[in-house]
Design a protein that fits this description.
The chain is of the alpha+beta class and 163 residues long. Helices cover 37% and strands 33% of the residues. A seven-stranded mixed β-sheet has the order 1-2-3-4-5-7-6, sandwiched between helices. Helix 1 runs antiparallel to helix 2. The chain is globular, with a radius of gyration of 15 Å. The two termini are 28 Å apart. The relative contact order is 0.16.
Length: 163
């Protein structure tokens, strides 16, 4: 991972690039579309607009300054509902190189440091690599339901890590 740098905090262009990474991957592999890309961009922009460095986390993995992966930890309601992981992705060039593990590790470490009671994320059946990575970090599936949160009907899964 010598050429890969993981850093916390905002980078110019990161919102658009993270939305692009999500749109490209999920359109190609899951037939998502404009609804998903627009929702990703809108919700990520709203999160970053209210971002509080003492409560939230935004990590990017960059190669030569270009964002190639990300994860966020939304701590806005962490004390009552747990901190929420979102926008967790690595580009094709970074998959299988330990970047997802490193990003998830950073987010979990931050949640522990903040003394949050738990961390959760919504995923869906079929994302084997991401879901297995979360389970290796101690997350367990706590809920499963058919839903259309991402614009198409899927078997949505909630994973949680008690801290």
């Amino acid at each position: 991972m010598d050429d890969i740098h993981i850093r916390r905090g905002y980078l110019p262009g990161a919102i658009g690039r993270v939305a692009e990474l999500h749109a490209a991957y999920y359109t190609e592999n899951w037939s998502f579309g404009v609804y998903f890309e627009a929702r990703t961009a809108t919700e990520l922009a709203a999160f970053m607009s209210r971002y509080d460095d003492s409560r939230d986390g935004f990590w990017t993995a960059t190669v030569h300054g270009r964002v190639e992966g990300s994860i966020t930890l939304d701590g806005q309601h962490a004390r009552e509902q747990g901190a929420e992981l979102r926008w967790f992705i690595a580009s094709e060039k970074l998959r299988g190189r330990g970047v997802g593990d490193a990003l998830l590790g950073e987010a979990v470490r931050f949640a522990v440091e903040q003394d949050y009671p738990s961390v959760f994320l919504w995923s869906f059946a079929g994302l084997q690599a991401a879901n297995a990575l979360c389970q290796r970090h101690g997350f367990v599936m706590t809920e499963e339901r058919i839903g259309s949160h991402w614009g198409i009907k899927l078997n949505e899964q909630r994973f949680e890590l008690l801290l």
